[in-house]
Amino acid sequence: MLFRGAFVHCPSLGVVEMLSDHLLGKAGFIVHFAPATTEHSENLIAHSSVRPVIIPSGNFIMPTFCDLHLHAPQYLYQGTGLHLPLMTWLNEYAFKAEERLDNDPALARTVYERLAQRLLESGTGAVLLFGTIKEATNLILAEVLQEKGLRGFVGKLSMDISSRPTYQEPSAHASLSAVHSFVESCQHMVSHLPEHERLIQPVITPRFVPTCSDELLLGLGEMAESRSLWVQSHLAEAHDQVEWVKRERGVDDIHVFERNHLLTSRTIQAHCTFLDPPSLSHLVSRGTAVAHCPLSNAYFSAKPFPLREALANNVKVGLGTDIAGGYSIDIMNAMRQAVTVSRMREGHRIVAMTETDGDGAPHEVNLSIDWKESLFLATRGGAVALELAGRFEVGAPFDAQQIAIFDPSCADGIGGIDFFGEIPSLDMDLLEKWWCLGDHRNRRCVWVQGKVVFEQR
């Protein structure tokens, strides 16, 4: 199949390429991508058995979003309980909801089917998920994602310590056995499919240090290493959690993960708000990525993530919604929140500098990011963390979404985007307007591995 029209992607941080009148050829993968007027493109069009799909004026195709941190069972109570501190919130809401789904397979399937649909409506094509502690419930989640065509990295929670006695695994040995069984079952679920159609992968998932014994963490690290598995957890997230780890383990949680072989090039750690510069450098040395969740950090962390410092240090960073610690499932909101928080950090830096030396000049690195950088984090940044492409290039999976900003037939914008007078051409100003004001109404179609998984009706 051939598509002809405008394409947008972010090949590197801060760079947005708008490629007008390009031709993209795809099956499950991209087999051609070049200006439509090149000789090769014209030959493809001439010899194709079907005419190219023309992307209408006012529309463009861009990569799907990657969500690097989401608690699937917590979608059950999305948008509630956010007045509480983290450790209390976990006891009052999170553990109860997860236990409820573990005890009700029918409810779990209903919640996960709705979650998958909402993610696709929001343009998310790949998602890294925390599940529950029960193997069967996580297999339901994996099955739903595969059926819906959503690229899913699924983590069965490991936790042999809990403040809720009814929601924990009986021992480190039992937890490790359950993880081994889940990994085997998850991989077997898709083993009959061609490799490129296997959309789900199991992920080693110690919830965080307060819920995992050293014995369990070491066993998980050895399993991840021996089987080249993905790892996800929470790192240096909230003040009460950080202090708990220091008090109980005697060191920061980054050192606990390190000594148990859980900081790898296939590890994604959520939050990391309390990491200092040497710790960020340590993540770089291990190839570990960060899932930046600005909304949930505002609720549950006493400080924001040092995003600019991490990017300047070449830390791999993508965005996460952190449902239900964050209330919005839409990565577009995570992009906007990332920019907002960074601008507040930069303002605080300038004010603090002015108050101390009377000079507000930017002697240090500007801590704010702009919309272009956030778009990179939402697409290419998250994709790199998951060893995906996140941009248009030959050989990459065709994971894409079609965005409609205006309708030239009626000379008006789409969704919440309005125009007064002549509608402008598709340019960077118009892209920024969509970034600020766009929502699900602008999303016409979503493809994952070349297949339509969502279409606006």
Which terms would index this structure?
eight-stranded parallel beta sheet; Amidohydrolase-related domain-containing protein; 457 residues; 14 helices; TIM Barrel; guanine deaminase activity; Metal_Hydrolase; Urease, subunit C, domain 1
Which sheet architecture does the biggest sheet show? Answer: 8 strands, parallel
Report the helical percentage.
25-40%
Low-confidence stretches: none
| Order of neighbouring strands in the sheet with most strands | 6-7-8-9-10-11-12-13
Descriptive report:
The chain folds into two domains: 2-63 and 390-455, Urease, subunit C, domain 1; 65-349 and 353-385, TIM Barrel (Alpha-Beta Barrel), CATH 3.20.20.140. The protein is globular and about 65 Å long. 40% of the residues lie in helices and 23% in strands. By secondary structure, the protein is α/β, with parallel strands linked by helices. α3 runs parallel beside α4 and α4 packs parallel to α5. It is built from 14 helices and 18 strands. Its cofactor is Zn(2+). One of its GO terms (biological process) is guanine metabolic process. Keywords: Hydrolase, Metal-binding, Zinc.
